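Dissemination and training. As part of the outreach component of the grant, students in the summer workshop were shown how a complex can be specified as a set of sequence lines and then modelled as a single object. The example used during the hands-on session is reproduced here so that future cohorts can follow it. Participants entered these lines:
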Amino acid sequence: MGKAHSMAYALAPGVVDLDVNIVKHTLVDAVPEVAAAAAERLGWKHSSSDWRAVVESDDVDVVDIVTPPQFHQEIAMAALAAGKPVFCEKPITNDAAEALRMAEAAEASGLANQVGFNYRHTPAISLLKQIIDHGELGEPLSFRASYMQDGAYFIDDFGWRSAKRTGGSGAVGDIGSHVIDLAEYLNGPIVRVSAMMRTNGGTAGASWLPEDERLSQDLTDDAGTWVAQFANGSIGTFVASFQAYGRKNQIRLELDGTKGAAEFDWNRREELKIARADDRVEDSGFKTVLVSDAHRDVWYPVAGIGIGYVEGSAIQLARFVEAAANGGTSRPDFADAAHVQGVVTAIQESARTGAWVEVAAARAATVGA
Ligand SMILES: NC(=O)c1ccc[n+]([C@@H]2O[C@H](COP(=O)([O-])OP(=O)(O)OC[C@H]3O[C@@H](n4cnc5c(N)ncnc54)[C@H](O)[C@@H]3O)[C@@H](O)[C@H]2O)c1
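and obtained this result:
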């Protein structure tokens, strides 16, 4: 992900007119040789293996954290204490209480703080948000989302992602958190969930282990599914999986409202499908629009030119840099991400107990704003 951020910082000034220059000052990695080689390849001026010294350096204006999640809190807290705006990759941490402490520290600091739920910055998602906020889909009824990958079949060593003790978040906390963020951005806070989570212990192709066996072995989940109730009364169904053959980073959303419906598929990320209740009966149904020209942040304002993962990352980092430079705020912030983590924690508890679990109400009132 450090590679994606490095490319995105280079692209950001071309995507958005920023009134500041971005200098890729120091790239940090725990391993000095990795830091030096990556800094040279990805265009950073310096490298270091001492994140604390870099965070406290007067030469550094903002801090961007792209380590595994178990290190996010310590680095973010140190950066805020040093008066630096912070961008932190998702999940903000793997622990809801820790996430709340980070959100409180960020709010108290008054500094810009943003979390890497990059998919909400996709132009089609921004347009969908406008359509929903204008009331064009009517009252929300139901929301469906899935995030499916087949990476577990092709990657032999999942590294730190394989176990909770090395900071792994599982399919629900890692990729599921993205669709929770998208759901809360578009449809407001989730208030309660009922869930199942499973793993097969890293033996892709074998069947799922029962949940109590997964937990007793401290294994992360390979797949989870949950139903959710939103504060606005609508109902949701979700699934996230690392073991879905043929699904190439496939993120799908479907929303139904009293006046219309919408569909989005990340694998066709320039297309937004919309159906409106007042369409003529003869041609009612989903219409597809190419949306990239409808967005102020696209790098070239013509539909069909193309928006990729790195462009979306550049849009999110440009927004962060703008907020950091101007003393403003940017979203999703630590408080939004803490609420997402609260949902993940509720899903985990529900999967363990089999019961419905309420989501703690950390800033629920403004989630989705
Ligand atoms: N938003 C997205 O689409 C997206 C995609 C992939 C990963 N991520 C997130 O990015 C983060 C990193 O994931 P990744 O896939 O790049 O992991 P990775 O294992 O590929 O890279 C992590 C790097 O951090 C370094 N590191 C570990 N501990 C460190 C420390 N204490 N100080 C300095 N460097 C340290 C490691 O040496 C490694 O080079 C995670 O939070 C992950 O969830 C986000």
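The two ends are 27 Å apart (CA to CA). Students were then asked to discuss how this feature might be tested experimentally.
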